[in-house]
Structure to design on (467 residues):
Protein backbone atom coordinates (compact mmCIF):
# COMPACT_ATOMS: atom_id res chain seq x y z
CA UNK A 1 0.00 0.00 0.00
CA UNK A 2 1.07 3.59 -0.61
CA UNK A 3 1.21 6.22 2.11
CA UNK A 4 0.10 9.75 1.22
CA UNK A 5 -1.84 11.21 -1.68
CA UNK A 6 -1.17 10.07 -5.22
CA UNK A 7 -0.35 13.59 -6.33
CA UNK A 8 2.42 13.84 -3.72
CA UNK A 9 3.74 10.38 -4.56
CA UNK A 10 3.93 11.14 -8.31
CA UNK A 11 7.25 12.88 -9.16
CA UNK A 12 6.88 16.41 -10.56
CA UNK A 13 8.79 15.45 -13.72
CA UNK A 14 6.75 12.31 -14.37
CA UNK A 15 5.81 11.80 -18.02
CA UNK A 16 2.27 11.04 -16.83
CA UNK A 17 1.89 14.69 -15.78
CA UNK A 18 3.04 15.87 -19.23
CA UNK A 19 0.64 13.50 -20.99
CA UNK A 20 -2.24 14.67 -18.81
CA UNK A 21 -1.37 18.33 -19.41
CA UNK A 22 -1.61 17.73 -23.15
CA UNK A 23 -4.79 15.65 -22.95
CA UNK A 24 -6.55 18.28 -20.84
CA UNK A 25 -6.23 20.81 -23.67
CA UNK A 26 -8.21 18.65 -26.09
CA UNK A 27 -11.93 18.75 -26.74
CA UNK A 28 -13.28 15.22 -26.25
CA UNK A 29 -16.77 16.09 -27.48
CA UNK A 30 -18.52 12.82 -28.53
CA UNK A 31 -16.34 10.70 -26.23
CA UNK A 32 -17.65 12.59 -23.19
CA UNK A 33 -21.16 11.73 -24.26
CA UNK A 34 -20.35 8.04 -24.64
CA UNK A 35 -18.81 7.79 -21.17
CA UNK A 36 -21.19 9.99 -19.20
CA UNK A 37 -22.48 8.94 -15.78
CA UNK A 38 -26.03 7.74 -15.25
CA UNK A 39 -27.98 6.14 -12.46
CA UNK A 40 -27.07 2.58 -13.46
CA UNK A 41 -23.87 0.67 -12.68
CA UNK A 42 -20.47 2.11 -11.84
CA UNK A 43 -19.51 5.72 -12.57
CA UNK A 44 -18.38 6.25 -16.16
CA UNK A 45 -14.65 6.27 -16.84
CA UNK A 46 -13.20 9.61 -17.87
CA UNK A 47 -12.19 9.16 -21.55
CA UNK A 48 -9.27 11.53 -20.99
CA UNK A 49 -7.90 9.07 -18.47
CA UNK A 50 -8.29 6.19 -20.93
CA UNK A 51 -6.46 8.09 -23.68
CA UNK A 52 -3.68 9.07 -21.29
CA UNK A 53 -3.40 5.52 -19.93
CA UNK A 54 -2.95 4.02 -23.38
CA UNK A 55 -0.35 6.65 -24.30
CA UNK A 56 1.64 5.82 -21.19
CA UNK A 57 1.21 2.11 -21.90
CA UNK A 58 2.65 2.56 -25.40
CA UNK A 59 5.66 4.31 -23.90
CA UNK A 60 6.09 1.43 -21.47
CA UNK A 61 5.74 -1.15 -24.23
CA UNK A 62 2.55 -2.61 -22.76
CA UNK A 63 -0.08 -3.64 -25.29
CA UNK A 64 -2.08 -6.10 -23.18
CA UNK A 65 -5.28 -4.65 -21.74
CA UNK A 66 -5.01 -7.21 -18.92
CA UNK A 67 -1.63 -5.86 -17.83
CA UNK A 68 -2.70 -2.24 -18.30
CA UNK A 69 -5.75 -2.86 -16.08
CA UNK A 70 -3.39 -4.36 -13.48
CA UNK A 71 -1.16 -1.28 -13.64
CA UNK A 72 -4.18 0.98 -13.12
CA UNK A 73 -4.53 -0.61 -9.69
CA UNK A 74 -0.86 -0.87 -8.73
CA UNK A 75 1.35 1.62 -10.60
CA UNK A 76 1.44 5.20 -9.27
CA UNK A 77 1.55 6.80 -12.75
CA UNK A 78 -1.43 4.82 -14.04
CA UNK A 79 -3.41 5.25 -10.81
CA UNK A 80 -2.87 9.01 -10.97
CA UNK A 81 -4.13 9.17 -14.57
CA UNK A 82 -7.38 7.30 -13.81
CA UNK A 83 -7.99 9.06 -10.49
CA UNK A 84 -7.22 5.95 -8.44
CA UNK A 85 -10.31 4.22 -9.80
CA UNK A 86 -10.48 0.61 -10.90
CA UNK A 87 -10.55 0.06 -14.67
CA UNK A 88 -11.38 -3.35 -16.09
CA UNK A 89 -9.63 -4.86 -19.11
CA UNK A 90 -12.78 -4.94 -21.27
CA UNK A 91 -13.39 -1.17 -21.40
CA UNK A 92 -9.67 -0.65 -21.93
CA UNK A 93 -9.60 -3.09 -24.83
CA UNK A 94 -12.81 -1.75 -26.40
CA UNK A 95 -11.65 1.84 -26.11
CA UNK A 96 -8.38 1.12 -27.87
CA UNK A 97 -9.90 -0.66 -30.88
CA UNK A 98 -13.05 1.46 -31.25
CA UNK A 99 -13.59 5.20 -31.74
CA UNK A 100 -11.25 5.60 -34.70
CA UNK A 101 -12.98 8.80 -35.85
CA UNK A 102 -12.72 10.29 -32.36
CA UNK A 103 -8.99 9.48 -32.05
CA UNK A 104 -8.35 11.00 -35.49
CA UNK A 105 -10.22 14.11 -34.32
CA UNK A 106 -7.98 14.34 -31.25
CA UNK A 107 -4.93 13.99 -33.50
CA UNK A 108 -6.20 16.87 -35.66
CA UNK A 109 -6.52 19.01 -32.53
CA UNK A 110 -2.92 18.22 -31.59
CA UNK A 111 -1.79 19.22 -35.08
CA UNK A 112 -3.78 22.46 -34.75
CA UNK A 113 -2.04 23.16 -31.42
CA UNK A 114 1.33 22.54 -33.04
CA UNK A 115 0.34 25.02 -35.73
CA UNK A 116 -0.67 27.56 -33.10
CA UNK A 117 2.85 27.25 -31.68
CA UNK A 118 4.39 28.00 -35.08
CA UNK A 119 5.31 24.44 -36.01
CA UNK A 120 2.63 23.85 -38.66
CA UNK A 121 2.02 24.17 -41.50
CA UNK A 122 5.61 23.34 -42.36
CA UNK A 123 6.57 23.99 -45.93
CA UNK A 124 8.79 20.90 -46.37
CA UNK A 125 7.34 17.42 -45.90
CA UNK A 126 8.97 14.01 -45.88
CA UNK A 127 7.30 10.75 -46.94
CA UNK A 128 8.50 7.39 -45.72
CA UNK A 129 7.15 3.91 -45.06
CA UNK A 130 8.01 0.67 -43.33
CA UNK A 131 6.76 -2.90 -43.05
CA UNK A 132 5.30 -3.95 -39.69
CA UNK A 133 4.67 -7.57 -38.77
CA UNK A 134 1.03 -8.58 -38.50
CA UNK A 135 -0.41 -10.28 -35.44
CA UNK A 136 -0.76 -13.60 -37.27
CA UNK A 137 2.07 -16.11 -37.49
CA UNK A 138 4.05 -16.70 -40.66
CA UNK A 139 2.92 -20.35 -40.44
CA UNK A 140 -0.67 -19.24 -41.11
CA UNK A 141 0.23 -18.42 -44.74
CA UNK A 142 -1.11 -21.22 -46.93
CA UNK A 143 -1.29 -21.78 -50.68
CA UNK A 144 -4.52 -22.66 -52.46
CA UNK A 145 -3.07 -26.05 -53.41
CA UNK A 146 -2.31 -26.85 -49.77
CA UNK A 147 -5.73 -25.73 -48.55
CA UNK A 148 -7.52 -27.80 -51.18
CA UNK A 149 -5.38 -30.83 -50.37
CA UNK A 150 -6.07 -30.42 -46.67
CA UNK A 151 -9.81 -30.09 -47.26
CA UNK A 152 -9.85 -33.24 -49.39
CA UNK A 153 -8.06 -35.08 -46.59
CA UNK A 154 -10.64 -33.83 -44.08
CA UNK A 155 -13.44 -35.04 -46.35
CA UNK A 156 -11.91 -38.53 -46.31
CA UNK A 157 -11.57 -38.50 -42.52
CA UNK A 158 -15.12 -37.24 -42.13
CA UNK A 159 -16.51 -39.94 -44.42
CA UNK A 160 -14.58 -42.55 -42.47
CA UNK A 161 -15.93 -41.31 -39.15
CA UNK A 162 -19.50 -41.17 -40.44
CA UNK A 163 -19.26 -44.82 -41.48
CA UNK A 164 -18.43 -45.88 -37.90
CA UNK A 165 -21.15 -46.91 -35.40
CA UNK A 166 -22.73 -44.03 -33.53
CA UNK A 167 -21.17 -43.11 -30.21
CA UNK A 168 -20.41 -40.06 -28.11
CA UNK A 169 -16.76 -40.15 -29.15
CA UNK A 170 -17.74 -40.40 -32.85
CA UNK A 171 -20.13 -37.43 -32.61
CA UNK A 172 -17.48 -35.25 -30.98
CA UNK A 173 -14.88 -36.19 -33.62
CA UNK A 174 -17.34 -35.49 -36.46
CA UNK A 175 -18.16 -32.11 -34.97
CA UNK A 176 -14.48 -31.13 -34.78
CA UNK A 177 -13.82 -32.27 -38.35
CA UNK A 178 -16.81 -30.30 -39.64
CA UNK A 179 -15.57 -27.15 -37.89
CA UNK A 180 -12.12 -27.55 -39.47
CA UNK A 181 -13.68 -28.15 -42.90
CA UNK A 182 -15.82 -25.05 -42.49
CA UNK A 183 -12.77 -22.92 -41.68
CA UNK A 184 -10.92 -24.28 -44.72
CA UNK A 185 -13.94 -23.63 -46.94
CA UNK A 186 -14.15 -20.05 -45.68
CA UNK A 187 -10.43 -19.54 -46.41
CA UNK A 188 -10.84 -20.86 -49.97
CA UNK A 189 -13.89 -18.63 -50.51
CA UNK A 190 -11.87 -15.67 -49.27
CA UNK A 191 -9.14 -16.48 -51.78
CA UNK A 192 -11.72 -16.65 -54.56
CA UNK A 193 -13.18 -13.30 -53.50
CA UNK A 194 -9.70 -11.76 -53.63
CA UNK A 195 -8.99 -13.19 -57.09
CA UNK A 196 -6.43 -15.74 -55.85
CA UNK A 197 -7.30 -18.56 -58.23
CA UNK A 198 -3.89 -20.05 -58.99
CA UNK A 199 -2.67 -23.11 -57.09
CA UNK A 200 0.43 -21.24 -55.93
CA UNK A 201 -1.48 -18.16 -54.70
CA UNK A 202 -1.20 -17.70 -50.94
CA UNK A 203 -3.35 -16.27 -48.18
CA UNK A 204 -2.87 -15.60 -44.48
CA UNK A 205 -5.66 -17.83 -43.21
CA UNK A 206 -6.06 -16.27 -39.76
CA UNK A 207 -5.67 -12.68 -41.03
CA UNK A 208 -6.57 -12.36 -44.72
CA UNK A 209 -5.87 -8.61 -44.80
CA UNK A 210 -2.18 -9.19 -44.05
CA UNK A 211 -0.08 -9.78 -47.15
CA UNK A 212 3.14 -11.77 -47.19
CA UNK A 213 5.80 -9.06 -47.08
CA UNK A 214 9.58 -8.96 -46.87
CA UNK A 215 10.81 -8.13 -43.37
CA UNK A 216 13.96 -6.23 -42.44
CA UNK A 217 15.83 -9.45 -41.69
CA UNK A 218 15.17 -10.67 -45.24
CA UNK A 219 12.50 -13.22 -44.28
CA UNK A 220 8.85 -13.13 -45.38
CA UNK A 221 5.95 -12.93 -42.95
CA UNK A 222 2.41 -11.46 -42.80
CA UNK A 223 2.68 -7.73 -42.49
CA UNK A 224 1.35 -4.30 -43.35
CA UNK A 225 2.85 -1.37 -45.23
CA UNK A 226 2.68 1.67 -42.93
CA UNK A 227 3.10 5.09 -44.58
CA UNK A 228 3.65 8.40 -42.80
CA UNK A 229 4.07 12.02 -43.92
CA UNK A 230 6.28 13.95 -41.51
CA UNK A 231 6.74 17.69 -41.14
CA UNK A 232 10.47 18.35 -41.48
CA UNK A 233 10.31 21.51 -39.35
CA UNK A 234 9.00 19.78 -36.23
CA UNK A 235 9.13 16.03 -36.69
CA UNK A 236 5.35 15.83 -36.23
CA UNK A 237 3.54 13.16 -38.20
CA UNK A 238 0.90 14.91 -40.29
CA UNK A 239 -0.87 11.86 -41.74
CA UNK A 240 -0.61 8.09 -41.60
CA UNK A 241 -2.04 5.22 -43.62
CA UNK A 242 -1.79 1.45 -43.93
CA UNK A 243 -1.72 0.55 -47.62
CA UNK A 244 -2.01 -2.76 -49.43
CA UNK A 245 1.07 -2.18 -51.62
CA UNK A 246 4.13 -4.33 -51.07
CA UNK A 247 6.50 -1.37 -51.42
CA UNK A 248 6.63 2.41 -51.58
CA UNK A 249 6.20 2.73 -55.35
CA UNK A 250 3.27 4.91 -56.39
CA UNK A 251 2.65 6.20 -52.86
CA UNK A 252 4.15 9.69 -53.10
CA UNK A 253 1.17 11.64 -54.46
CA UNK A 254 -1.56 9.74 -52.51
CA UNK A 255 0.25 10.24 -49.21
CA UNK A 256 0.88 13.90 -49.89
CA UNK A 257 -2.81 14.37 -50.66
CA UNK A 258 -3.62 12.79 -47.29
CA UNK A 259 -1.25 15.22 -45.61
CA UNK A 260 -2.85 18.18 -47.36
CA UNK A 261 -6.30 17.00 -46.27
CA UNK A 262 -5.10 16.50 -42.69
CA UNK A 263 -3.68 20.03 -42.58
CA UNK A 264 -6.93 21.41 -43.94
CA UNK A 265 -8.98 19.47 -41.36
CA UNK A 266 -6.94 20.81 -38.47
CA UNK A 267 -7.17 24.37 -39.81
CA UNK A 268 -3.47 24.72 -40.64
CA UNK A 269 -2.75 26.30 -43.99
CA UNK A 270 -4.91 26.76 -47.03
CA UNK A 271 -5.00 25.34 -50.53
CA UNK A 272 -2.17 22.84 -50.73
CA UNK A 273 -1.89 22.84 -46.94
CA UNK A 274 1.19 25.06 -46.99
CA UNK A 275 3.27 22.27 -48.52
CA UNK A 276 5.95 23.72 -50.74
CA UNK A 277 8.36 20.79 -51.03
CA UNK A 278 8.56 17.07 -50.40
CA UNK A 279 11.48 14.71 -49.95
CA UNK A 280 11.46 10.92 -50.22
CA UNK A 281 13.85 8.11 -51.10
CA UNK A 282 14.24 6.56 -54.51
CA UNK A 283 11.55 3.94 -53.91
CA UNK A 284 8.92 6.71 -54.30
CA UNK A 285 10.23 7.86 -57.69
CA UNK A 286 7.27 7.88 -60.05
CA UNK A 287 7.64 10.09 -63.11
CA UNK A 288 3.94 10.78 -63.61
CA UNK A 289 3.38 11.70 -59.97
CA UNK A 290 6.49 13.89 -59.91
CA UNK A 291 5.30 15.77 -63.02
CA UNK A 292 1.89 16.26 -61.41
CA UNK A 293 3.32 17.55 -58.13
CA UNK A 294 5.82 19.84 -59.86
CA UNK A 295 2.94 21.26 -61.86
CA UNK A 296 1.16 22.07 -58.60
CA UNK A 297 4.17 24.06 -57.40
CA UNK A 298 5.55 21.40 -55.03
CA UNK A 299 9.33 21.10 -55.29
CA UNK A 300 10.23 17.40 -55.24
CA UNK A 301 13.47 16.01 -53.85
CA UNK A 302 13.12 12.40 -54.94
CA UNK A 303 16.12 10.63 -56.49
CA UNK A 304 15.71 7.98 -59.14
CA UNK A 305 15.51 4.40 -57.95
CA UNK A 306 18.88 2.72 -57.75
CA UNK A 307 17.96 0.26 -60.50
CA UNK A 308 16.11 2.85 -62.59
CA UNK A 309 19.03 3.35 -64.98
CA UNK A 310 20.56 -0.08 -64.70
CA UNK A 311 22.82 -0.79 -67.62
CA UNK A 312 22.80 -4.16 -69.34
CA UNK A 313 26.00 -6.10 -68.65
CA UNK A 314 28.74 -5.84 -71.26
CA UNK A 315 27.66 -2.50 -72.73
CA UNK A 316 30.58 -0.14 -73.27
CA UNK A 317 30.24 3.48 -72.07
CA UNK A 318 30.28 4.84 -75.65
CA UNK A 319 27.20 2.73 -76.50
CA UNK A 320 24.98 3.59 -73.55
CA UNK A 321 21.55 5.19 -74.04
CA UNK A 322 22.82 8.77 -73.73
CA UNK A 323 25.07 8.21 -76.77
CA UNK A 324 22.02 7.65 -79.03
CA UNK A 325 20.71 10.74 -80.86
CA UNK A 326 17.02 11.52 -81.26
CA UNK A 327 15.61 12.80 -84.55
CA UNK A 328 12.35 14.64 -83.84
CA UNK A 329 11.43 14.90 -87.51
CA UNK A 330 11.28 11.15 -88.11
CA UNK A 331 10.71 10.21 -84.46
CA UNK A 332 13.63 7.79 -84.53
CA UNK A 333 16.84 7.24 -82.61
CA UNK A 334 20.25 6.82 -84.23
CA UNK A 335 23.02 4.77 -82.67
CA UNK A 336 26.73 5.79 -82.66
CA UNK A 337 27.27 3.54 -85.69
CA UNK A 338 24.60 5.45 -87.65
CA UNK A 339 21.90 2.75 -87.60
CA UNK A 340 18.26 3.71 -87.14
CA UNK A 341 16.06 2.61 -84.21
CA UNK A 342 12.33 2.86 -84.85
CA UNK A 343 9.63 3.66 -82.33
CA UNK A 344 8.01 0.52 -80.95
CA UNK A 345 5.89 1.27 -77.87
CA UNK A 346 5.54 3.14 -74.59
CA UNK A 347 7.03 1.59 -71.48
CA UNK A 348 4.81 0.03 -68.80
CA UNK A 349 4.41 3.31 -66.91
CA UNK A 350 3.84 5.31 -70.11
CA UNK A 351 6.64 7.67 -69.13
CA UNK A 352 9.12 6.81 -71.89
CA UNK A 353 9.14 5.76 -75.55
CA UNK A 354 10.97 2.58 -76.48
CA UNK A 355 12.93 2.48 -79.76
CA UNK A 356 14.39 -0.71 -81.25
CA UNK A 357 16.76 -1.50 -84.07
CA UNK A 358 16.14 -4.29 -86.56
CA UNK A 359 17.54 -7.62 -85.37
CA UNK A 360 19.44 -8.26 -88.61
CA UNK A 361 21.05 -4.83 -88.37
CA UNK A 362 22.45 -5.50 -84.91
CA UNK A 363 23.51 -9.06 -85.77
CA UNK A 364 25.67 -7.84 -88.65
CA UNK A 365 27.02 -4.77 -86.81
CA UNK A 366 30.75 -5.02 -85.86
CA UNK A 367 30.01 -3.14 -82.59
CA UNK A 368 27.47 -5.70 -81.32
CA UNK A 369 29.89 -7.10 -78.73
CA UNK A 370 30.15 -3.61 -77.22
CA UNK A 371 26.55 -2.43 -77.74
CA UNK A 372 24.22 -5.38 -77.07
CA UNK A 373 26.32 -8.54 -76.62
CA UNK A 374 23.58 -10.59 -74.92
CA UNK A 375 20.61 -9.49 -77.05
CA UNK A 376 19.06 -11.90 -79.51
CA UNK A 377 17.04 -9.11 -81.12
CA UNK A 378 17.75 -5.50 -81.94
CA UNK A 379 19.07 -2.95 -79.46
CA UNK A 380 16.37 -1.14 -77.43
CA UNK A 381 16.71 2.40 -76.09
CA UNK A 382 14.17 4.41 -74.05
CA UNK A 383 13.58 8.15 -74.42
CA UNK A 384 11.86 9.79 -71.41
CA UNK A 385 8.73 11.84 -72.16
CA UNK A 386 9.33 14.36 -69.37
CA UNK A 387 13.09 15.05 -69.55
CA UNK A 388 12.83 18.65 -68.37
CA UNK A 389 11.10 17.71 -65.12
CA UNK A 390 13.49 14.84 -64.40
CA UNK A 391 16.53 17.00 -65.18
CA UNK A 392 15.22 19.79 -62.95
CA UNK A 393 14.71 17.39 -60.02
CA UNK A 394 18.14 15.79 -60.55
CA UNK A 395 19.80 19.22 -60.61
CA UNK A 396 17.89 20.30 -57.50
CA UNK A 397 19.10 17.25 -55.60
CA UNK A 398 22.75 18.14 -56.32
CA UNK A 399 22.46 21.61 -54.77
CA UNK A 400 23.28 22.43 -51.16
CA UNK A 401 19.57 22.71 -50.44
CA UNK A 402 19.00 19.29 -51.96
CA UNK A 403 21.71 17.72 -49.81
CA UNK A 404 20.23 19.40 -46.73
CA UNK A 405 16.76 18.05 -47.59
CA UNK A 406 18.13 14.52 -47.97
CA UNK A 407 19.86 14.80 -44.58
CA UNK A 408 16.63 16.12 -43.06
CA UNK A 409 14.69 13.18 -44.51
CA UNK A 410 17.15 10.74 -43.01
CA UNK A 411 17.04 12.41 -39.58
CA UNK A 412 13.34 13.36 -39.37
CA UNK A 413 11.48 10.68 -41.34
CA UNK A 414 13.68 7.80 -40.25
CA UNK A 415 13.65 9.26 -36.75
CA UNK A 416 9.84 9.33 -36.70
CA UNK A 417 9.66 5.62 -37.49
CA UNK A 418 12.42 4.96 -34.97
CA UNK A 419 10.19 6.57 -32.35
CA UNK A 420 7.10 4.68 -33.55
CA UNK A 421 8.84 1.33 -33.53
CA UNK A 422 11.47 1.78 -30.84
CA UNK A 423 10.18 4.21 -28.22
CA UNK A 424 6.50 3.37 -28.83
CA UNK A 425 7.18 -0.35 -29.27
CA UNK A 426 5.53 -1.07 -32.62
CA UNK A 427 7.64 -3.97 -33.80
CA UNK A 428 4.57 -6.11 -34.38
CA UNK A 429 0.83 -5.55 -34.48
CA UNK A 430 -1.23 -6.82 -31.56
CA UNK A 431 -4.59 -5.97 -33.07
CA UNK A 432 -5.94 -8.08 -35.90
CA UNK A 433 -6.75 -7.10 -39.47
CA UNK A 434 -6.10 -4.04 -41.59
CA UNK A 435 -8.36 -1.89 -39.39
CA UNK A 436 -6.46 -3.00 -36.29
CA UNK A 437 -3.09 -2.21 -37.84
CA UNK A 438 -4.24 1.27 -38.87
CA UNK A 439 -5.73 1.84 -35.43
CA UNK A 440 -2.37 1.03 -33.84
CA UNK A 441 -0.68 3.49 -36.19
CA UNK A 442 -3.25 6.21 -35.43
CA UNK A 443 -2.71 5.77 -31.68
CA UNK A 444 1.04 6.09 -32.06
CA UNK A 445 0.71 9.14 -34.29
CA UNK A 446 -1.40 10.83 -31.61
CA UNK A 447 1.06 9.87 -28.88
CA UNK A 448 4.13 11.05 -30.79
CA UNK A 449 2.59 14.41 -31.69
CA UNK A 450 1.31 15.00 -28.15
CA UNK A 451 4.75 14.30 -26.68
CA UNK A 452 6.20 16.83 -29.13
CA UNK A 453 3.54 19.35 -28.14
CA UNK A 454 4.19 18.96 -24.42
CA UNK A 455 7.96 19.05 -24.80
CA UNK A 456 8.64 15.51 -23.61
CA UNK A 457 10.33 14.86 -26.96
CA UNK A 458 12.32 17.49 -28.79
CA UNK A 459 11.70 18.19 -32.48
CA UNK A 460 14.01 16.34 -34.82
CA UNK A 461 14.67 19.51 -36.82
CA UNK A 462 17.50 20.53 -34.47
CA UNK A 463 19.35 17.32 -35.22
CA UNK A 464 18.70 17.73 -38.93
CA UNK A 465 20.17 21.22 -38.98
CA UNK A 466 23.16 20.10 -36.94
CA UNK A 467 23.86 17.34 -39.46
Amino acid sequence: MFAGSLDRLLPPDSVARAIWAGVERLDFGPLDGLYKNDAVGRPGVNPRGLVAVWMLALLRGETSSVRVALFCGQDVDFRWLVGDGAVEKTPLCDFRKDHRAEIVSLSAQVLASLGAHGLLPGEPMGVDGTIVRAASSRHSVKSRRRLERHRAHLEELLAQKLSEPESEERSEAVQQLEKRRERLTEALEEMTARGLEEATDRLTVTEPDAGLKRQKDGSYAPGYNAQAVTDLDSGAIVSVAVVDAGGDGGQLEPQLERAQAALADCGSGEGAGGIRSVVADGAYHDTRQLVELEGQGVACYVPEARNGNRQAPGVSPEYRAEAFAYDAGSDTMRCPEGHELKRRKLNAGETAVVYQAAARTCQSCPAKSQCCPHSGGGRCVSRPLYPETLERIAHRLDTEEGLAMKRARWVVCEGAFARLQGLLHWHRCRMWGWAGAEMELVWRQLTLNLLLLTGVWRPRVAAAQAA
